[in-house]
Amino acid sequence: MSWNNKQLFGRYVLDSTFAPIQVDAPLIEFAVPGLDIDRERYRDEVVSLYINHRLVALAFERTEDREVLLEQFKMMFAFAKLQLRLNQNQELVIGMADNDWRKWDGQVFVSGQGAVMPKERRSLLR
Known about the structure:
Layout: E1 7-8, E2 11-12, E3 27-36, E4 45-51, E5 54-60, H1 66-79, E6 83-86, E7 91-97, H2 98-103, E8 107-111, E9 120-123
């Protein structure tokens, strides 16, 4: 753990995943359990995520194409200075800057409609 906090010339040597930092702004990726692109397609749903003092609202519209929804979601995450991508399991993978990750408590507040994504607080394993 002590190596994770080592700095050289004012910059961290390892990121929060213990990988050597090789770029100027390393990203740490994580997924919120239960949040994926495959939603119930018979009704519209709005899911709000409150991550590290940033609010991201995702509108799952049944009439929109999946690729269009993904591009809209990427834009919403970009406004919150986060990144988004899909993994092989169709889960939404969120990327956060390493400096923000170090200050974050790992809590995600989720607000959704119905039983698909109920309102709750989710703690991510770090």
